[in-house]
Design a protein that fits this description.
CATH topology: Phenylalanyl-tRNA Synthetase, Chain B, domain 3
CATH class: Alpha Beta
Structural class: alpha+beta
CATH superfamily: Phenylalanyl-trna Synthetase, Chain B, domain 3
Number of strands: 10
CATH architecture: 3-Layer(bba) Sandwich
Order of helices and strands: EHEHHHHEEEEEEHHHEE
Number of helices: 8
Oligomer: single chain
Low-confidence stretches: 194-211
Helix content: 25-40%
Length: 247
């Protein structure tokens, strides 16, 4: 299978990098609730302290993503990381979906990167991140009615099926991760810069923590391997110089 990013997206969104993990032999039925709750409580406390009195719309990561969306005509859409941060700042817990989703949602908060995941076995063709033609079929998560993305919208798709709309803003029901998922692709989207949360993650400073995207990929892969018994078959970063991954 191949995952390819349209090179024009890198010109439209300068500095974009997409981290990709391909995980196999996942046991997505393991009960890791206590572990996630403990780590979430610690991370959420740090997020609330960091954003106390901060106007979220002006926070650099959130502001950048809003500018990206406006760049391809989306005025109301928001990045998934903005939605997560806003939820935590408002005193709400994260929804527990299933172990793999809970892991990457926690990573999204820790590293301030939009994350998403799809069940590879539900795809009948190669995956792409590209511009929508507008006739792709999209069934929103938890729904049954098919809709279409807007022309020019940046979407993940295979064949004529839109997997995610507006990067990772809206998830498709067809490829969602479930308890039955054994093989998955996880993507993390980065607009550039070091790990902004390094100083509160592992006692590191931003200077010695290294690139946030690389750290985030390592963190998700390690958690999924240790907790869900998965095997990582690909761990890479795609950009304009390398825009595809085959596995």
């Amino acid at each position: 299978m191949v995952f390819t990013i349209d090179r024009e997206i890198f010109r439209k969104v300068p500095g974009l990098k997409v981290g990709v993990l391909v995980m196999e032999n996942i046991d997505n039925t393991v009960d890791i609730g206590d572990i996630i709750k403990s780590e979430y409580a610690e991370t959420a406390g740090g997020v609330r302290a960091k954003f106390e009195g901060v106007e979220l719309a002006e926070y650099p990561v959130i502001k950048k993503w809003r500018e990206v969306y406006r760049g391809f005509g989306e005025k109301k859409a928001r990045s998934s990381i903005e939605a997560l941060i806003r939820r935590v700042v408002n005193g709400k817990d994260l929804y527990s979906i299933n172990p793999l989703v809970d892991i990457y949602n926690l990573a999204s908060l820790k590293f301030e990167l939009p994350c998403g995941g799809e069940d590879i076995d539900t795809m009948s063709a190669d995956l792409m991140l590209t511009f929508a033609a507008g006739n792709e079929k999209f069934v929103p998560l938890g729904e049954t009615v098919t809709e279409n993305p807007n022309v020019g919208e940046i979407i993940y798709k295979f064949a004529d099926t839109a997997v995610c709309r507006n990067f990772n803003y809206r998830e498709c029901d067809v490829t969602k991760l479930t308890a039955d998922t054994k093989n998955a692709i996880i993507v993390l989207e980065d607009l550039g810069g070091d790990c902004v949360n390094a100083e509160r993650l592992d006692g590191k400073t931003a200077a010695d923590a290294g690139p946030g995207l690389t750290d985030a990929l390592k963190w998700v892969a390690g958690k999924t391997e240790r907790l869900l018994g998965a095997k990582t078959t690909a761990n890479t970063v795609l950009d304009d110089s390398q825009n595809s991954l085959a596995w």
